[in-house]
Each structure stands twice: as structure tokens, then as C-alpha cells.
Design brief:
It is built from eight helices and ten strands. The protein is α/β, with parallel strands linked by helices. α4 crosses α5 and α5 packs parallel to α6.
């Protein structure tokens, strides 16, 4: 069943007097419980596609639906409320607040909800435990390794039990060992917790952890066969 439905989407940007077309008539379905990797050269529209799904950007034409909700038609206020409970976004640069502990960083999205302090505490502890950082809850970002910072960011993304997780180059700033740990965690979230995950990556090894690989070429999506990836 399609969780993300993108229908006949155009997306263009204006740069001075020049119009830059990123997508023209893009149509895509992403199923619930899937793990999808988006690959392609810089400027091919990978991050733009994530932003459209998250409602951080709007299509020039066409519709974007997530879980039946038409994201592309929402007002800014509606988007903020919808995003807080439906989207878990993880950035390459971690985006942790340095003055807050790992616990406090993970708790941030829940401060926008009506959950009680006790309920927030339970959710944060579960999220940190899932990513293997229960013993680092009181540590500040500067006291964590790059891999631990990224896992904290992932805990923050899952703490509100989002409909879909979107990750933009999640291993881009990590060493090989930390990258493998983060990718193994994503596989676990997908396999054990049935999280729908979409990652943007330049790393073929990272993409091979996904169940589906989509390659963006000049705004067109081409699915890469998993047999070929597994054979490498």
C-alpha cells in the first residue's frame, strides 16, 4: 500500500531571470514499511524530493500525499502540526543543540505535543534505548562521537513515532565504522519496527542497505535492481 503518493509533480526554481526545472511530471509511490534509497548526482533533486515529502517545500504543480493527507495543499500552520507527528527528519549535520543534553535534544519534538512530562520521559527513554544511547542521555553533543550524535538525531526523529523517516546524507560526515552502525540501526528500525525510511545518499554501500534503490537522473527516477546491488 502506498504511503507516499507523488502525482504529476513539477518543481522549478527561479534564479535571477532563469527558471530551473527540477521535476517535470514526476510520479512516484513509496509503500508503507519500505526502505528506499535515493541516489543521483548533485543537483538532481534528491534533497528537493525529501523536502516536498516533508512539506518543507511545495510543488509548482501536482500533488504530494503522505498517509492520505495532501501535504501540498496545507497551510503553514497545518503543515507544522502535521509534520510534528508524521515526519522524522535527520540531517547530515545532525542539527543538535549544543547547550542541550542528548535527552533534551531528543525531547524537543515532544514539547510541541500535549503529552505529559511523564509520557515525554517514557518516550525519550525508549527512543534512546532503541538507538543504543540509554547510557549517554546526560551527555552534551560535544561529549559524543559523530556516530553517537547521529544516533541521537535518529532518536529525536523517531521519538514522536512518525509516519515516515527522511534522512538526508545520514552517513555523510561519519567514518566507516560509525556509518555501518547507523545503517544497521536504520535496517533494524525498518525490519523490527516497520518504519518507512527514505534516505538520500551518494554512498553506494549505504544504498545497498535499502530494499529499493531509486536513481535520480535529470529529474527522472529509475529503479535499480537489487540483484545487481547484492552481487557486488
Amino acid at each position: 500500500m502506498a504511503l507516499v503518493e507523488i502525482r504529476d509533480v513539477d518543481k522549478s526554481f527561479q534564479r535571477d531571470t532563469q527558471r530551473i526545472d527540477v521535476f517535470t511530471g514526476l510520479t512516484l509511490d513509496i509503500d508503507a514499511g519500505s526502505f528506499t534509497a535515493l541516489m543521483g548526482p548533485s543537483g538532481s533533486g534528491k534533497s528537493t524530493l525529501l523536502n516536498l515529502i516533508a512539506g518543507l517545500d511545495k510543488p509548482t504543480r501536482g500533488t504530494v500525499r503522505v498517509g492520505g493527507a495532501e501535504v501540498s495543499a496545507m497551510s503553514p500552520g497545518q503543515l507544522a502540526a502535521w509534520r510534528s507527528s508524521n515526519i522524522g527528519f535527520v540531517f547530515q549535520s545532525f542539527n543538535l543543540l549544543p547547550v542541550l543534553t542528548a535527552y533534551q535534544n531528543v525531547e524537543l519534538p515532544l514539547l510541541l505535543t500535549r503529552l505529559s512530562g511523564r509520557e515525554r520521559n517514557e518516550r525519550v527513554k525508549i527512543a534512546l534505548d532503541v538507538v543504543g544511547l540509554a547510557d549517554r542521555a546526560d551527555h552534551y553533543p560535544r561529549q559524543l562521537s559523530g556516530g553517537q550524535e547521529q544516533r541521537t538525531a535518529i532518536a529525536r526523529a523517531i521519538v514522536a513515532d512518525p509516519t515516515v523517516m527522511l534522512l538526508d546524507e545520514p552517513t555523510g560526515q561519519l567514518d566507516a565504522k560509525s556509518s555501518q552502525e547507523v545503517l544497521t540501526l536504520l535496517q533494524r528500525l525498518n525490519n523490527e519496527f516497520n518504519k518507512t525510511i527514505i534516505i538520500v545518499t551518494h554512498d553506494a554501500h549505504a544504498a545497498e542497505r535499502a530494499k529499493t534503490i531509486l536513481h535520480l537522473e535529470k529529474g527522472d527516477l529509475i529503479e535499480k535492481p537489487r540483484v545487481a546491488a547484492a552481487a557486488r
